Amino acid sequence: MPEPLKYNKKFDELNEEEKKLLEINKKTIADFVEQSSCISDVNYATRNAHAKTYAAAAGTFFIDKNIPEELLPYFDGEQFDLTIRLSNANLKIKNNGKDVPAYGFAVKIKDENGGLIANFPLVNFPLFPMNSVSHFLKLFTAVNRFYIKKWSSFFSLAGQAIKVIPNICTLSFIRNIFRLIGKRNDFILSFDYHSVGAYRLGDYMIKIKLVPDSVHKKFGRKLKIRTALKNYFQEHDYTADVMIQLCYDLKDQPINKLNVEWKNSPYIHIGKLKINKDALLDPDSCTNELLSFNPFESKIFFQPVGKIQKLRDEAYKVSVQTRRKINKLLHGKSFEL
C-alpha cells in the first residue's frame, strides 16, 4: 500500500473572518431550534438539519478479517454494536407530499461496554456544493433566518444561493445530480451512503462509503418511507459493505474541496454493516429525538477533517444543547412523529 498523507491540524484551521461568521451562524441555529416545533408543526424541538426521522435501528459492524495490516490497529475487535438513524436532510419536517430524496444514514459505533467510539453521519449524495467557508456560513445563516422570518429574508437568501452555482458546475457534481434524479423514486435503503468530507483514521485521512447488498430499489415505492421501512424490516435483514478511500495526494484527494470526487484511491473493504429484521427501535419513543450523531464526539483518531467539517463541531453543539434543553422536558412522553 502506498504511504498515505498524514493528518495535520492546519487542514481544519479557520481564519478570523470565518470565526466571526460562525458565531453569527451559531446564534441563528439556536433561534431556529427554539422555533423548530412551530416551523415543522410538531410538539418537540427538531434538529436544524436532517430534522425528519424515518427510523432508528440497532445494528452490528462486522470487521473484515482481510483488511490491510496497516489498518488493523484501528479495528481491534471482530464486531461492534451500532445505533443507526435514517432521516431526510430538510430542515423542516414535511408530513404531506413527497420528500426530496436527500437522505441521511447516521451511524453510532459503540464498544463492548456501550461507550462511544465514533459517530459517522452519512448521506446519499457524495459531494457538497460549497468549498468557501465564508459563503457556506452566510448561506446557512440566510437559510435559518428565512425559516424564522419568512419572506422578509428572501432576497438575502437568494443572493447567497446564487453564489453556490459555480461550485455545482463541476463534472463530478453534475454527474451525481443526474444520477440522483434517476434514482429519485428508489427505496431509501437501496442507495449508497457517503461521508461528506474526510475523517481521520489515526494519522491517515479517509472517506467512507456504504454499499448495500441486494436491496430492491422499487421496494415500497407506493408507500410512505416510514411504512416502507417498517415493512422491509418485518421480512428482511439489511446488509451493506463498508468501504474507505485513503488520502495519498491532495491533488487527487482534496480535503477542503468537497464538490469533486476523490480519484486514484481504490476502495478498501473494511467490513459489513448489518441490521437484523425486527431491529427497528420504537418509532414513537422520544429517545430517538434525543440521539446525537455529532462526529466530534468520536474518539480523537476518528474525528472529521477539513474546514467545512470543523464548522460542524460548533454547529452540532449549539443544535444539540438547544434541542436537548427543550426535549428533555418531554422525556418520558411520546412524540407525535
Automatic annotation (TrEMBL):
Source taxon at top rank: Bacteria
Name of the featured protein: Catalase
